[in-house]
Amino acid sequence: RSDWFLTLLLIPFATVSFFATKWFFRLFIRHTGVGPTTIEISDLPLLPGREYALYLCQYGRVTIKKLSVSLVCYEETTYQQGTDVRTERCEVVRQVLISPCDFTIEPEKPLELDCQFRLPLDTMHSFQSSHNAITWKVIVEGDAPRWRAFCRSFPIVVHPRPVVQSDVANPL
Fold first, then answer.
1. Does residue 171 surpass a pLDDT of 70?
2. pLDDT tens track for 4-23
3. What pTM was estimated for this model as a whole?
4. d(C-alpha 75, C-alpha 72), whole Å
5. 5 CB contacts (<8 Å, ≥6 apart)?
6. Is residue 168 scored above 60 in pLDDT?
7. 3 state SS for the chain
């Protein structure tokens, strides 16, 4: 003989289980479609005025409409306004390094790109204090049909330019 109360209680649990499983697989496919991104830079530390090679490897199983790799500098300021502490971030420099369009990435053959870039001689080095910061990042942004646009950020450190003897002899 069956217990009708337990049978009726099974219906909401089965419904929740079905939708949770469906949600899990949608999330799983979304995260495995556009796979991880790897960035390598030829030399560290980064110094203003020098040239560097950058290697990008994008994994996944996706057709990408547009991909952009940029070197970006942000200025951050932290201040107090009344009883609130606020932080503002302003993009100061954006240098687009690579911007390929319309290609397909397969799991067996990830996208591999190389490029050269030069930090300008008058580049501000990375800096961190209690109220101000200068941060540098390599940002990879992509747009793929049927997928959400993605943005991956890789922080880097730019060291100050070495002092040259001619700089000391001829101050501004």
1. no
2. 888 888 999 999 999 999 99
3. 0.74
4. 10
5. none
6. no
7. CCCHHHHHHHHHHHHHHHHHHHHHHHHHHHHHHEEEEEEEECCCCECCCCEEEEEEEEEECEEEEEEEEEEEEEEEEEEEECCEEEEEEEEEEEEEEECCEEEEEECCECEEEEEEEECCCCCCCCEECCCEEEEEEEEEEEECCCCCCEEEEEEECECCCCCCHHHHHCCC
pLDDT band at 166 (very low <50, low <70, confident <90, very high): low
Q: Which two tokens stand for residue 90?
A: 């302003």
Q: Please count the other Cβ atoms lying within 10 Å of the Cβ belonging to residue 144.
A: 19
If 0-12 CB within 10 Å is exposed, 13-18 middle and 19+ buried, where does residue 123 land? buried
Name the CA radius of gyration of the chain, rounded. Answer: 24
